[in-house]
Amino acid sequence: MTGADLPAYSFPLYSFNRLWFNTTTLRRRNFDGQIVSTHQSGSHWLKYMLSHVLAMAFDLPPPEHIQDDKIIGHPKSPTRYKNVPCIVHSHSIPHGFLKNGIADKFLRFPRYLVLLRDPRESLISHYERFKGDYGNVDFTTYLHGDPRGKKFYSDLWTRLCFMNAWGDILRSQPQRSLLLTYEGMEKDTEGNLRRTCSFFFPNLDVQDDVIRRTLELSTRDKMAKNPNKAVTTTVIRKNKKPLAEYFTPENEEFFRAACRKFLRHDFGYDLK
Predict the structure, then answer these.
(1) Whole-angstrom Cα distance, residue 219 to residue 214?
(2) CA–CA separation, 220 vs 74, rounded Å?
(3) Cα first-last separation, the chain
(4) What is the pLDDT at residue 259?
(5) What are the contacts of 267-272 at 24+ separation with CB within 8 A?
(6) What is the pLDDT of residue 239?
(7) DSSP string covering the chain, please?
(8) Which of 19, 43, 46, 2 shows the shortest CA–CA distance to 160?
(9) How many CB atoms lie within 10 A of CB 192?
(10) What does the CA dihedral 1, 146, 94, 203 come to, rounded to 10 degrees?
(11) For position 3, what pLDDT does the model report?
(12) What does the alpha-carbon distance between residue 55 and residue 53 come to, in Å, rounded to a whole number?
């Protein structure tokens, strides 16, 4: 598949099916807040920090490792502590009814924090973590992906679908959605942690000391030294190759051609 040979029907059909026939966000919504993210976009880091904030604020046991979900769980298995905000995380696509506001007339929905990362970087990170599960295909094969959404856990096409759908929500529902980027978290970790706390916990006075201690506990080195022993793949990569080693001119052209044809919201990443 080249830049001139993009999927004419399979990806639009996949996106339509995900938007209208995946009812997860309609069925599982009884939370105070939900983090939704593309894969390998910093969700473990953000959840780890928020878990420490809630643990300190409500005297809960702190997270044991970066993948600990006892405080911030999944929509299928949310953590419930009395009087503690219920926050969950997933990679879900919003149902189409959320965009047009029809569902709001009948149902209550949580606040949504949309966490993104430059898709080129997140694709590389995902590839390096899961290429063994994919039969050690080369990066070009993985980049071209499967527009039907069946071959890989996550690829370029799942990201384009996610960015289009949640970009629409951020634009149409600004009162209950917030955009956060991995790059922004790296640049100003404290500021974006405070911003996230204000969004999810508007009635909670998060003390400066809680923020300070959370940041001290959530450095890359400290998190990497305390992995989830039940998981064999690496969550935090230490050795990174240059972007150009993966995105050759041919791969870059294919990637940009796909974005030009199918992506509605590039969130300032200059992807087209």
Answers:
(1) 9
(2) 23
(3) 18
(4) 97
(5) 267/116, 267/163, 267/167, 267/179, 267/181, 269/118, 269/119, 271/119
(6) 61
(7) --TTS--SSHHHHHHHHHHHH--HHHHS--SSEEEEE-TTSSHHHHHHHHHHHHHHHHT-PPPSSTT--SSSBBTTB----TTS--EEEE-PPPPHHHHHTTGGGT----EEEEEE--HHHHHHHHHHHHTTTTTS--HHHHHH--TTS-SSSS-HHHHHHHHHHHHHHHHH-TTSEEEEEHHHHHH-HHHHHHHHHHHH-TT----HHHHHHHHHHT-HHHHHTS--TT--S-SS------HHHHS-HHHHHHHHHHHHHH-S--TTS---
(8) 19
(9) 18
(10) -100
(11) 46
(12) 6
Give me the sheet containing 111-116, strands edge to edge.
Answer: 87-90, 33-37, 111-116, 177-181
- The rounded distance, in Å, linking the Cα atoms of 166 and 112 is 9
Per-residue pLDDT tens digits for 212-241: 999 999 998 888 877 776 665 555 555 678
Residue with tokens 């690829």: 155
| Residues 139 and 127 sit within 8 Å (Cβ to Cβ) | yes
- Domains, in order of start, for the chain: 10-262 (3.40.50.300)
Which residues of the chain are under the pLDDT cut of 70? 1-5, 229-239
Kindly report the average pLDDT of the chain as a whole number. 91
pTM: 0.91
Rounded distance between C-alpha atoms, residue 170 and residue 175, angstroms: 9
